[in-house]
Each structure stands twice: as C-alpha cells, then as structure tokens.
Design a protein that fits this description.
Blueprint: E1 7-10, E2 13-16, H1 27-31, E3 34-36, E4 39-43, E5 49-52, H2 54-68, H3 76-89, E6 95-103, E7 117-124, H4 134-137, E8 139-143, H5 164-176, E9 181-185, E10 191-194, E11 198-203, E12 206-209, H6 219-230, E13 234-237, H7 242-246, E14 250-255, E15 259-266, E16 269-270, H8 278-291, E17 302-305
Parallel strand pairs: 8-9, 8-15, 12-13
Antiparallel strand pairs: 1-2, 1-7, 3-6, 4-5, 4-6, 5-17, 6-7, 9-10, 11-12, 11-14, 14-15, 15-16
Bound molecules: pyridoxal-5'-phosphate.
Length: 307
C-alpha cells in the first residue's frame, strides 16, 4: 500500500501522501458517493513498463461518475497523463493504480448539491491479489449468502464505492468460513460475479461468462473474451446456474487485481481435477503475454512509459 512519502496526485498536484488529506465531513465518506478504478502496470521483458488498457479504464471512470450523476472536472486526456505522471513520480515500474473521484465536503444531506468533486490517484506495488499460490494452484470459493444487488438498485455498470458494501459482506463471510473468495448470485438466482472479479466456467469445451446484466463490465473480462476468441475457443455470454458451476470442467475469475485466477473448488465440490485447468492456464498465459507487450496483436492495449 502507499506509504507516507509516496506521491499522490490530488486534484492536479502531486503531493506527499501525508499531505493528501480530506475533511471527515466528505460526502463520500458518509454515503459512498465515490467512483474508482483499479489498473495495473506491468514491466515488459524489454525493460519498458506499460499500463494495461489505460484509455478503457479512464473512460469507465468517467462513465461511472456519469451513472452516479456527477461529473469529474478533468478531461480524459488529463487523467491519462496524471496516471502516467504518478507512476513516474513514484518510480513504479510495475504495480497497481487506484484513481478515485468522490463527492467532497460541503452539504452533508443526501443531496450532494454543489459539493466539489475531488480526485486522487495513488499507486503501489501489488503482487497476486489472492495470494502467490492462487495463480498456479487455483483457489477455493463459496457461493455467498448475500445476493448481488438488483440491477435497478445499485448500478452495476458503475465501479462505485457504495456498491462495495455488498462485496465486503460477501468477502468477509467467505474469508471467515475459510474460503478465498465468494461468488454471488443475482436476484433471480443465476450466477453473477465475485466481490471484485468476473466469473467464467468451461464446460464441454465451451467458455461461458455472465452477460452484462448484474455484473461490472470488466476490462479483464473483455480482454479474455477477445483473447479466447483469437485462440479459437467458443465463448458465450449467457446466464448459468449454480449447479452448472458444480459440474463445470473448469472455473476461473478475471479482474485487474485477480488477473486470471483459476478456481479448484466451489462449495466443497471439486471442479474438474481440482487444480488449475488447461483452458484457464492457457488464457492466463496469453493474458500475461498481452499485458507484458509480448503479443503484437494486443499492442494497442498498452501505454508504455519509462522514468
Ligand atoms: C473491478 C471489478 C471487476 C473486474 O473488472 P476489471 O476491469 O477486469 O478490473 C469485476 N467485478 C466488480 C464488481 C468490480 O468492481
């Protein structure tokens, strides 16, 4: 995580982390009125560094704010440049990037009124999100007792802080019960997504993921859909049920933090052979090649930088 001497971009200025402060009367702290991104930068074998799908992440940040009904007072170009500047200022060759825009201090009623919209960008080095062994061996997950929010309750296309209360409930329950992660069902009982990852199964050679109903339009999900199609797999976006997960040959998560994480067990039922499956492994390898600039077909996804 960010240490106090690291530089944080705060409304246009790079400040030492200890000086990047807000009021305890910040609207977002009381009501969850914040939108954010999780982005990764990778060090490429040629020594350069590259931010993965920077434009798409910044576009989603601006759209998340639009869904919540506020507008971030910085342009797309300005935010892209700010992210690269923050990486350079912290001399971070590889790591995680967290832009966050939030309704600031002012009116403390529910109506955000004319409160300022503040934006920060923090960066830190971050290894495998679900632990070093997860990417290799696969993880154990449970179906959450918490339902993914109704599509007309929380806005699932917004990566909004408030939506994450649902995720924290599910994650805590899973970890307390000894699992690595939770899968949530939608309000109709179909499989939705995890607490911060999209979900895929592989069954009889077909790759399936939940359509963009109750799930976030994940950029890793989109990358996997493209990479899998380019590799010749058949991929469908289709609702599926919990029992279909139990009899899947493979299951895996996708997400910026989790990258491509295989799943070896769901609700105490072994998935496939109880280890990372061959399709998940092949997609994981292809994803890392794309993200590290080793596959020219996906060079357009990378923003290179050096310092
Ligand atoms: C961020 C997030 C994901 C993954 O999206 P990526 O763009 O791949 O990082 C999936 N689900 C939820 C709820 C998320 O917040």
């Amino acid at each position: 995580m960010a240490h106090e001497n690291e530089k944080i971009w705060f409304d246009g200025k790079l400040l030492p982390a200890k000086d990047a402060q807000v009021s305890v009367l910040t609207h977002a702290l009381h009501y969850g009125t914040a939108v954010f991104e999780g982005i990764r930068a990778y060090q490429c074998p040629d020594g350069s560094s590259a931010v993965f799908r920077l434009n798409d992440h910044v576009k989603r940040l601006l759209n998340s704010a639009k869904i919540l009904g506020f507008s971030i007072p910085h342009s797309h170009e300005e935010l892209c440049k700010a992210i690269v500047d923050t990486l350079k200022a912290n001399k971070l060759a590889e790591g995680y990037i967290r832009p966050l825009s939030f309704v600031g201090a002012g009116n403390l009623g529910v109506w955000p009124g004319k409160n300022p919209i503040n934006t920060i960008i923090a960066v830190w080095s971050w290894g495998a999100y679900l632990g070093p062994e997860a990417l290799e061996r696969g993880i154990r997950v449970r179906t959450s007792s918490f339902t993914r929010s109704n599509v007309n309750g929380m806005m699932s296309k917004a990566k909004a802080a408030g939506n994450y209360v649902n995720s924290v409930l599910a994650k805590n329950e899973a970890v307390q019960d000894g699992y690595d992660e939770a899968i949530m069902l939608d309000t109709n009982g179909f499989v939705s997504e995890a607490t911060g990852e999209n979900f895929f199964i592989v069954r009889n050679g077909l790759i399936k993921t939940t359509p963009l109903t109750s799930v976030l339009d994940g950029i890793t999900r989109d990358s996997i859909l493209k990479i899998a199609a380019d590799m010749g797999y058949t991929v469908v976006e289709q609702l599926f049920t919990r029992d279909e997960v139990y009899i899947a040959d493979e299951a895996f998560f996708s997400g910026t933090a989790a990258e491509v994480t295989p799943i070896r067990e769901v609700d105490n039922r072994t998935i496939g052979e109880g280890k990372a499956g061959p399709v998940a492994k092949a997609l994981q390898a292809a994803f890392f090649k794309a993200a590290k600039g080793q596959d020219p077909r996906y060079a357009k996804w990378l923003t290179h930088y050096s310092f």
